Give the backbone structure.
Amino acid sequence: MILAFKNKWSVALVVLFFACQSKTVEKKMMEDNKEINVEILAEKVGEWEGKEVFRYRLDNGFMEVEMTNFGGIISKILVPDKNGKLENVVLSLDSIPQYFTGNGPYLGAAVGRYANRISKGSFLLDGEQVEVTKNIGENHLHGGRKGFGVKVWDQAETYDADGAIGVKMHYLSEDGEEGYPGNLDTWLYMELTPENEIKIRFESTTDKKTVVNLTNHSYFNLGGINRDVKDHEVQILADAYTEVDNQSIPTGELVNVEGTPFDFRSPITLGDQMEAKGGGFDHNYVTKRENSSELKEIAQVRHPESGRIMEVFSTAPGVQFYTSNGMRDFKGAEGKVYQPFWAFCLEPQAWPDSPNQPAFPSAALDPGEKYVHEIVFKFEVEK
């Protein structure tokens, strides 16, 4: 049995204002003649670099999501298990201000201007050499030293539309930031739907040709973050991955997963595949061979003990599957100390190092065009 809300939402909207610059938007919905309270709470929690930082809590009556305009971070996702116990299923910190200087692993962050790696921090764009920040050895990772995940996004506001409740926010990455050309203007929309989906949408435009590759970097543990994720059943709907060298830079070759430990086309226990591989995963899976706007299912993860299931959808051509191999003795929320393999990431995105790989789907964006990337994380519980 799958416990999930149907889309039978309606009725009134009440807006209440509180002190301390907080705002609550509460909607009373009806589902099968049963009243459901749906709520957004906006609360100022601090300032960073002279800008106000807010925490937002979204509750649809089944699950709760916490996010912030600092880094576009999803800081908590609380989902019930098959016995109704509500637990956080993403690695997190205890308070939003802790993310200002303590989020080395990019927990829950919106990463960019280019997620994943760019070899040697350099690429050609229309014949001109572009040099971006080298922040992981000789290479570039997740937008550089101060990427989108450590910026305060402005113009943040709550909204409701088509039964969903959400937060939108804006960030202008100026020409030359971390070495990237062009003023990249980005809006980020994050919402919680009646169907228990977290919908994320990035929309970007530029005034000069550039490259862009934005994603969310949440670390998931559907068991409630009490131990590693080796008991999770993983399915990734991809028949190939991009081969990498010893610095995790793509070689340009696509490798068929059939007959290898990289084959997750059918649901399989993660620990079994890790044992067969001899370690964790940090690889880009090929979910499309070319760019398109099609939103398609790319992965599903099930935790048998809790009954929690997460489906992942995206419009991007790839998804980075990472089993938090580098996480070690990291002090997280509630006194927990995160260790290797305590979480997995499914980061939908362009293929790594595509600016240096002509055969890969392009991540270039021209003036007059709009970059749009949609991601959906859908949660269910089975009994």
